[in-house]
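Annex B. Sample input.
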Amino acid sequence: MNKSGRPERTCVGCGARRAKGEMVRVCRDPDGNVFVDGTGRSPGRGCYVCPDASCSESARRKRSISRSLKGDVPENVYKELGRAEELRSGAE
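Annex B, continued. Sample output.
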């Protein structure tokens, strides 16, 4: 947590620390399914990506999402991540 008491997370794409609510969470549930977690509260292993296309592309190139989740990430997750980023950028 930062000084204001809000939880922070680190982007697996760029390494920047931001408030948890500003990030997009990718989750691997106990059954091994990988998905973009819109609620940020789904059970399972998770990692966070900034809502920027450059961060998700960097994470894809470095395979850091796969490494963080300890498993393969299907192509549709990257597409869904791009849609989540578009929604977040449209809301700002």
